[in-house]
Amino acid sequence: MPSVIQLEGVTREFDASGPPALGPVSLDVPAGAAVAVTGPSGSGKSTLLNLIAGLDRPSSGTVTVAGTRLDALGEGGLARFRREHIGMVFQFFHLLDDLTVLDNVLLPAQLLGAPRAASRARALELLENLGIDRHARAYPGRLSGGERQRVAVARALINRPALLLADEPTGALDSAAGAEVRDLLVELHQDGQTVVLVTHDPALARACADRTVRLTDGRVAYDGPSDAAPEAPAGAGAAGAGASSAAVASVATGASEGVRG
Ligand SMILES: Nc1ncnc2c1ncn2[C@@H]1O[C@H](COP(=O)(O)OP(=O)(O)O)[C@@H](O)[C@H]1O
Ligand SMILES: [Mg+2]
After folding, report:
1. So what's the pLDDT on residue 182?
2. In sequence order, which residues have a C-beta less than 8 Å from that of residue 251 and are 6 or more positions away?
3. Name one Pfam family in it (predicted).
4. Alpha carbon distance 191, 166 (integer Å)
5. Average pLDDT over residues 190-208
6. What does the alpha-carbon distance between residue 66 and residue 13 come to, in Å, rounded to a whole number?
């Protein structure tokens, strides 16, 4: 399988005085893989995901995603790359409350300039496949957390992305809704979608991904089968606050695209 993600010697420094928040990290993810990124809060999970998404640029090293060198792109190029190749799901959904469910899902397709009728048909099909088509004309505020995350997944898939990225997608859900989203990610992967899932929950990692990359202090501490990955110490966890600004950028530039219909 060709690589969808290739990172070579990637670092990200936010503060020149300390050690980098991430790296150096090298990583290769083949097409069709499902990889979980785990590690304690502050270990660099979101930083890594944002670099793969083209929401951020490395301080050093090369980031190649879907055949494109992201570290060599400018802002406009990165925005276009995200629209075409990346679907992203966040802990707190980041839906636009004054758009209907259907219009939320359609937004990335409109930003890409996709033909409207075909996009609508695909959006409705995705909503149907995700079991939420009856809410197409509702506003997100009327939906449960699990339903909102399904809308976010539909939005992420609308442009058929090479890569689906999820940052703590069950972190704000109760256990039943979290299990639904978990099962949905498993299904998407079984249908061939390449998935990178950030979670501090090793059980979710094992359920959704055969491979786990565990970060500690910004470095890869483990990269291997999920069922052999070291457990997180008790009490480790909580999603990074960095996700929300990334989400706004992602929605504003239409980071999503979609796949399985
Ligand atoms: N935009 C930012 N500016 C400064 N520091 C940041 C920024 N984003 C993340 N960091 C720092 O980088 C480290 C890794 O953060 P993050 O990737 O969000 O961790 P995780 O997602 O694993 O909880 C933390 O020390 C965090 O404070
Ligand atoms: Mg985080």
Report:
1. 94
2. 94, 96, 107
3. ABC_tran
4. 17
5. 95
6. 24
